[in-house]
Amino acid sequence: MSRWTTLVDPAWFSADPRPADDVGLAVQWLGTAGFRVLSRGHHVWLDPHLSRHPLGELAFSKVSPRVDRVAAEVDVAHAVAVGHSHFDHALDAPAVARLHAARVYGSSDTLNWCRGYGVPEDQLVELRGEGESFVEGPFALRAVRSEHSPLFAGRVPLPGRIDRVLSGPAHYTRWRVGLTLGLHLQCAGGSVYHLGSANLVDAELAGVQADVLLCCTIGRQSVPEFTRRAVAALRPKFVVPCHWDPFWTPIDAPPRQIPSNDLAGFLSEVAACPNAPQVRVVPIRGWVVVKV
After folding, report:
1. How many domains does one find in the chain?
2. Phi, psi of 282 (to 5 degrees)
3. Which residue range(s) make up the domain with 152?
């Protein structure tokens, strides 16, 4: 078996049936760091990456959202929130916004891409991670200052900002990391914290708690004690690992890991935490219904 076909043990998977629209709180994994968060008929999409261009296109071509793929996956959307502006987090956000007239919550970097894609200004809400909070349907949405993990030779990939309007198609390297944020959503049914890169700023999480931690796993080995620190800070009841799948493969491809990822190691790290939360590894499109 080649290092590009690191299969995921099917025994790890556990998913609930798709809930009724009026559920108190549920989350659906979309692949990469993408999720849908649902409460009382309100759908918020986090870092949706549905285009999933193959490696050859990413390396040698300019890319833009594959609107047909986005439309096939996103049936209803009231808002999109983006944690940082790499292409595999931000690329499809403006397509969701334009298809469904949804608001986009993101840093100025993300919003400059949305502007270049033609999203109207009245649908754009800037996140700075300075304690601001927004009401989005049944949710209170708060952005928390965070960090991106240093993936390559101790460095964050594609550093820098998107400091002017970005129009596509463009090479994937045009989507710089920008400001990195954790996304905290609270509603009557519980709370969710989206950690789209495997790093954090401990001091920024003081006073933040989440029933569900949506946790990036790729790159965590480069951040000392990442898993323990994240679980200790947020005290979740459930952890849903994400960003372990190859984001350049079709969404319906057999489940496998990015070659450098170690999902089994992550599961062991969570289990070793004091008051260890339950881990739910879900397949792409799989749901977790939250009962707290």
Report:
1. 1
2. -115, 150
3. 6-289
The Cα-based distances of 201 to 36, 122, 197, 233 in angstroms read 25, 31, 12, 10
* pLDDT of amino acid 134: 98
CA 61 to chain centre: 24
> Does some domain include residue 1?
no
Q: Is residue 83 part of a domain?
A: yes
- Enumerate the β-bridge partners of residue 144: 130, 182
- Tell me the average confidence (pLDDT) per consecutive run of 10 residues in the chain, 292 residues long: 64 95 98 98 98 97 98 98 98 98 98 98 98 97 98 91 97 98 98 98 97 97 97 98 96 90 96 96 97 84
CB count in 10 Å sphere of residue 166: 20
